[in-house]
Automatic annotation (TrEMBL):
<dbReference type="InterPro" id="IPR029063">
    <property type="entry name" value="SAM-dependent_MTases_sf"/>
</dbReference>
<dbReference type="Pfam" id="PF03059">
    <property type="entry name" value="NAS"/>
</dbReference>
<keyword id="KW-0808">Transferase</keyword>
<protein>
    <recommendedName>
        <fullName>Nicotianamine synthase</fullName>
        <ecNumber>2.5.1.43</ecNumber>
    </recommendedName>
</protein>
<dbReference type="GO" id="GO:0030418">
    <property type="term" value="P:nicotianamine biosynthetic process"/>
</dbReference>
<comment type="function">
    <text>Synthesizes nicotianamine, a polyamine which serves as a sensor for the physiological iron status within the plant, and/or might be involved in the transport of iron.</text>
</comment>
<keyword id="KW-0949">S-adenosyl-L-methionine</keyword>
<dbReference type="InterPro" id="IPR004298">
    <property type="entry name" value="Nicotian_synth"/>
</dbReference>
<dbReference type="GO" id="GO:0030410">
    <property type="term" value="F:nicotianamine synthase activity"/>
</dbReference>
<comment type="similarity">
    <text>Belongs to the nicotianamine synthase (NAS)-like family.</text>
</comment>
């Protein structure tokens, strides 16, 4: 009898073969159909652990994540160009097919942030903002009306497109700053931010992602918050997974796994006040928090219908 996990892997591999054989990943009917089917295949909750898959499946997963990232980049550039043709682009964001997901994700991340921050942040950095910086736009417009957002992207054309989208809005154009940098070349400026967001597709594999996380851990201000996006279960075929153990310079506060159409898991952590040294270097070694909950159903949005997620880890802060 074939198990559900085998059927899932077979389906994902079949879609991978079709997607990897495409001449272009730019938006069109066939590309949109294949990626929609892939997302719908990976969306349902699944106990699969992608780290235990055979090597050949692991290699396909790694390549598939890069293909998803490339396709997502084309999709954002396509819609950023369309939106940029309007006199007031921000009034037409709803034409982006996943805009409602960003609204839900923004509300969720703001609610999580509010639980673990004692005040409204003055400056937030978003790393990997792209040509369609919807997270920053949603947070700045709907949840953090006095916060300045510093958006970092390595691509100058992406930043140019993003700046054009907010230029007609007198408020956001003053509170959205764009920097064209490889984040690994940014050091002192990182100390200015109370919260740093790391986009899911900045660092496409564990080595790249961990190099960036370690860089942030070295240069972010002590006590500042790092919010990053991960993936859980079958959704890890779409995005890289960040484990709590990857955050060596941070105290992991909570890990949230949405189970609806919001695909990304959310990890919130706090930069340690003192450097953390390996166990073999004596005092100053990492002490794991002892107030961890079991995996549980969790609703951070009190009174809203968002109970369809699990909170993997939470630290009860006194």
């Amino acid at each position: 009898m074939v198990c559900q996990e085998d059927l899932l892997i077979e389906k994902v591999c079949d879609l991978y073969e079709q997607i990897s054989s495409l001449e272009s990943l730019k938006p069109c009917k066939n590309v949109d159909m294949l990626f929609t089917e892939l997302v719908l295949t990976c969306m349902p909750p699944s106990p699969i652990d992608v780290t235990n898959l055979p090597k050949n499946i692991q290699e396909k997963r790694s390549h598939l994540i890069r293909l998803c990232g490339e396709a997502e980049g084309y999709l954002e550039r396509h819609y950023s160009s369309i939106l940029g043709s309007y006199q007031n682009p921000l009034q037409h964001l709803h034409i982006f097919p996943y805009y409602s997901n960003y609204l839900k994700l923004g509300l969720l991340e703001f609610s999580i942030l509010s639980q673990h921050s004692t005040h409204v942040p003055n400056k937030i950095a978003f790393i990997g903002s792209g040509p369609l910086p919807l997270t920053s736009i949603v947070l700045a417009s709907n949840h953090l009306p006095s916060t300045t957002f510093h958006n970092y992207d390595i691509d100058p054309l992406a930043n140019s497109s993003a700046m054009h989208l907010v230029s007609s809005d007198p408020d956001l154009s003053n509170r959205m700053v764009f920097h064209t940098n490889d984040i690994l070349d940014v050091s002192n400026d990182l100390k200015d931010y109370e919260v740093v967001y790391l986009a899911a597709l900045v660092g496409m594999d564990n080595i790249e992602k961990n190099r960036i996380i370690d860089h942030l851990g070295k240069h972010m201000a002590p006590g500042s918050l790092l919010m990053l996006r991960s993936a859980h279960g079958a959704r890890a075929f779409l995005y890289p997974v960040v484990e709590p153990s990857d955050l060596r310079d941070f105290e992991v506060i909570s890990v949230f796994h949405p189970m609806d159409e919001v695909i990304n898991s959310i990890v919130i952590s706090r930069k340690y006040s003192m450097p953390i040294r390996p166990l073999d270097q004596g005092l100053g070694s990492m002490i794991l928090p002892n107030k961890c909950s079991e995996i549980q159903v969790f609703n951070p949005l009190m009174g809203l219908n968002h109970g369809n997620m699990i909170e993997e880890l939470t630290i009860n802060e006194d």
